[in-house]
Design goal:
single chain, alpha+beta, 21 helices, disordered N terminus, disordered C terminus, binds ligand TSJ
Length: about 650
């Protein structure tokens, strides 16, 4: 082996070692979902090529339970020497260096944030074997990797084919993932949803027949193409659900060209108005799901609210100006997809879009079409807006009733002494922060908004109830104070109408102890007031771990990955950045705590949910987690605290 090969080897190890050491940091775990993230990442890269207009067909073949092949007929990954490492091909750099995505590749639609965009090297690092074949200019280039390490230099040979393209075949490493394997159903569904999201692509799905159970709905082979995109997907999903309006509201718009002359992107939507039943809004950016919503969803909400209110006001429909986004979202099933350049994502799992322009662009495009429809169908428009106004009225009536019950009786007299209450009694705006210890409690009291935010400090003692019986739980002073502060009772005595705060926010330190306390509190809520979680009242605050300062510029970072990213993105290279690590909430300056964690204009909250498909499992899981290792509980939090939302209210 030559010296230069050795040197290269070492560099590769340095490049991808952290991924193999802490796979969870890059793909959110090593479970079956993470296993499929690898597949999604490779397919997303091929989709990027299609969305950018260079590929029309993607082949996805599950060759055996551990091997997936993905091919596109695009330009082929560049194989020429890399400008920064001339001894290596661009292809090798892409597959062996973290963050080797977008920068030099000039991908116009490349997705970024989280796994997206840096993904191919992460997939490579976590694959027992990964083969790449690129065809371009009648040449075939090939390189094979194992656990991220090249097994040969890039080979080059003649081919008779005139077509160009990229083929990647990989097998996730059992050393990392244990016995996990690919699920044909999951992959087939992924292919279908990608095809619906971009009508310009044909996905040719195939699967080794032996992997399919007889009862399986998954075909061994299928050519998937949806000429009507999202509309087809929504139509399939709706089945026989009763609709308020037919046909569906569907459309697409190319967004205005940006000042720099580049495409402003594109938005597509499909909206069904339901008589009743399961409402939903599913959104995407560059075909990547954004389950935590973001600016594009905000644009859709704004367009609907403003459009309907204005119509209602001009037509003098009673209560129309009280219609809110929730009134509308509660009776639609909708899909929204945007394509924009350089999207920005945020949140623990990077699936909330934060690119501000998306808001304006989606609102503009949709508002136009909504107004046009309303004007062209005045009778249906009146009926629809009246229906929404009635929903708004009903909501207001319910709230009034809650208000009057709350103001009665002597409830305020029974509040625990440690509680610092807020002035407002309107649960649409009140919040209770549960904090760990007196010192953090003091900071939180100073950082809060007196009008809407209450603070209840809890002593570490709650720790001792880890495996307590129900009686013991109820005897615990800390939990009694908590129950009293909430006002809604526990177990069979639970009454949602008496809840005193609309949001209950667990705010603990960003360390293992903090996670432990948070999980104990969540366990308490799950056991004693599950309704509270189900109705979406329980949240986790997200205090930052680092503050980065240079000159007058200050940014915060949630964790180590976030810190690295911000050092790179938010500051000039080589700048001397002052980095402080907060040991706990109590040590954080009050102004920092307010701005990053409590102030509703800037903070990020995680809503604690029980995923529908896991409702049955959750009870057992909580039992099994009780009284066991704190690391396990920490996993539980990360897995179950979904739906990051920036609460802009
Ligand atoms: F994820 C992956 F990297 F492994 C992967 C990438 C997997 C698969 C199946 C396809 C791809 C891929 C990448 N398909 N097409 C491309 N295209 C490029 O990387 C490319 C090609 C040409 C140019 C250019 O500027 O000429 C730029 C890019 C980004």
């Amino acid at each position: 082996m030559s010296d230069s090969y050795n040197a290269r080897d070492i560099e590769v190890l340095e490049g991808l070692e952290p991924v193999r050491k802490r796979p969870g940091m890059y793909i959110g775990g090593t479970d079956n979902a993470a296993y499929h993230h690898l597949a999604a990442e490779i397919i997303d890269n091929a989709m990027d090529e299609a969305v950018a207009g260079h590929a029309t067909t993607i082949d996805v073949c599950l060759e055996n339970s551990h091997t997936l092949m993905v091919h596109d007929n695009g330009r082929g990954i560049p194989t020429d020497p890399h400008p920064r490492f001339p001894e290596k091909s661009a292809l090798e750099v892409i597959f062996t260096t973290l963050h080797a995505g977008g920068k030099f590749s000039g991908k116009s639609y490349a997705t970024s944030g989280g796994l997206h965009g840096v993904g191919s090297s992460v997939v490579n690092a976590l694959s027992e074997k990964l083969e790449v074949e690129v065809t371009r200019n009648k040449r075939l280039y090939r390189q094979v990797f194992s656990k991220g390490v090249p097994q040969n230099g890039l080979t080059e040979s003649e081919t008779t084919s005139n077509r160009s393209g990229t083929l990647v075949r990989f097998s996730p490493d059992p050393e990392i993932f244990g016995p996990e394997q690919f699920s044909p159903t999951r992959l087939y569904q992924l292919c279908r949803s990608k095809a619906a999201l971009f009508r310009g692509v044909t996905i040719k799905w195939s699967c080794l027949p032996a992997l399919l159970k007889e009862s399986s709905d998954v075909p061994a082979k299928e050519t998937i193409q949806f000429p009507n995109g999202l509309e087809d997907a929504l139509q399939t999903e709706l089945g026989n659900d009763a609709l308020l309006l037919t046909p569906l509201w569907c459309g697409l718009a190319d967004l205005p060209v940006a000042a720099d002359g580049q495409s402003g992107g594109r938005v597509e939507w499909a909206i069904a108005f339901l008589e009743d039943g399961a409402s939903a809004l599913v959104s995407y950016c560059n075909t990547i799901p954004t389950p935590q919503g973001g600016t594009h969803e905000a644009g859709l909400r704004a367009a609907l609210v403003k459009g309907f209110r204005q119509w209602g006001e001009t037509r003098k429909i009673r209560r129309a100006s009280s219609i809110t986004a929730e009134d509308i979202l509660g009776c639609i099933n909708a899909k929204l997809s945007v394509f924009i350049r350089d999207p920005q994502f945020q949140g623990q799992t990077k699936d909330r879009l934060t690119t501000q322009e998306a808001n304006r662009l989606v609102e503009g495009a949709l508002r136009d079409r909504i107004d046009h429809w309303l004007g062209g169908n005045p009778q249906q428009a009146d009926a629809l807006v009246s229906f929404l106004a009635e929903r708004a009225e009903e909501r207001l009536r319910r709230r009034e009733k809650r208000e009057t019950t709350r103001k009665t009786a002597t409830r305020r007299l029974r509040l625990p002494g440690k509680l610092t209450d807020c002035a407002s009694t309107n649960t649409d705006e009140t919040e209770l922060f549960l904090v760990e210890g007196e010192s953090a409690g003091g900071s939180a009291r100073q950082a809060r908004s007196r009008e809407t935010q209450a603070v209840l400090p809890l002593r570490g003692k709650i720790l001792n109830v880890a495996s307590a019986t129900r009686d013991k739980l109820q005897a615990n002073q800390e939990l009694r104070d908590l129950t009293e502060a909430l006002g809604c009772g526990t177990g069979k005595d639970f009454n949602h109408d008496n809840l005193r705060y609309g949001r209950i926010i667990i705010m603990t330190d960003a360390d293992v102890d903090g996670a432990h306390i948070a999980s104990l509190l969540m366990t308490f809520f799950y056991r004693e007031m599950p309704e509270l979680i189900r109705r979406g009242h329980l949240y986790l605050a997200q205090p930052p771990l680092y503050r980065l300062t240079h000159g007058s510029k200050t940014v915060y970072a949630m964790d180590d990955t976030d810190k690295e990213r911000r050092v790179r993105k938010d500051f000039k290279a080589g700048a001397k950045i002052e980095i402080s690590r907060f040991k706990g909430l109590g040590e954080m300056p009050v102004s920092d705590l307010k701005e990053t964690t409590m102030d509703s204009r800037h903070r990020t909250l995680l809503r604690v949910t029980i995923p529908a498909e896991e409702r049955l499992l959750t009870k057992d899981r909580i039992e099994s987690l009780m009284g066991r290792k704190p690391e396990l509980r920490f996993r539980f939090i990360q897995d179950h605290a979904r739906n990051v939302e920036v609460l802009d209210i």
